[in-house]
Design a protein that fits this description.
Layout: H1 67-77, H2 82-87, H3 90-102, H4 108-124
Helix pairs in contact: 1-4, 3-4
Length: 138
């Protein structure tokens, strides 16, 4: 394994590169697999084919959803399902919105509690992925 900042070989189980002092996994100028110099915006190393994505499990160029934004939306606007629209759970979101609107707001009491509980679950990490099963960012 090589430093992504300077391209020098790393010692096994290193926390920082002994050559440049950067934490292991930081940097964008070298491939961690083959040490080749790469374009900082590249997604794949053209020399060895290794994935250069900073967050494994997150597709390249995917905007991760914010845990805090989703939680606050759930607490404040949970009766309308806005947090579920934001996270990509459109089925649940439409259900919350329709329950609130079709009952002339009376169902909003139930969906408000539902949204409050989901907002708290998002903030505490019980719900930690979006509708595409991608982890939420802090």
């Amino acid at each position: 394994m090589y430093c992504k900042n300077c391209g020098k070989e790393l010692f096994q189980n290193s926390a920082v590169c002994t050559h440049c002092g950067v934490p292991v996994g930081s940097g964008h100028s070298h491939c961690q697999n083959c040490a080749a110099q790469v374009d900082p915006n590249a997604v794949v190393c053209v020399y060895c084919g290794a994935n250069l994505n900073q967050n494994p499990g997150v597709p390249a160029n995917y905007q991760q959803k914010s845990k805090i934004a989703a939680g606050v939306l759930g607490i404040l606007l949970g009766s309308l399902g806005i947090h579920n629209f934001y996270l990509g759970y459109t089925g649940k979101a439409v259900a919350q919105l329709l329950i609130t609107l079709l009952t002339c707001g009376f169902g909003g009491i139930v969906t408000s509690i539902w949204g409050l509980v989901e907002g708290i679950m998002i903030l505490t990490g019980s719900i930690n992925v979006d509708g595409n099963n991608i982890p939420l960012k802090e």
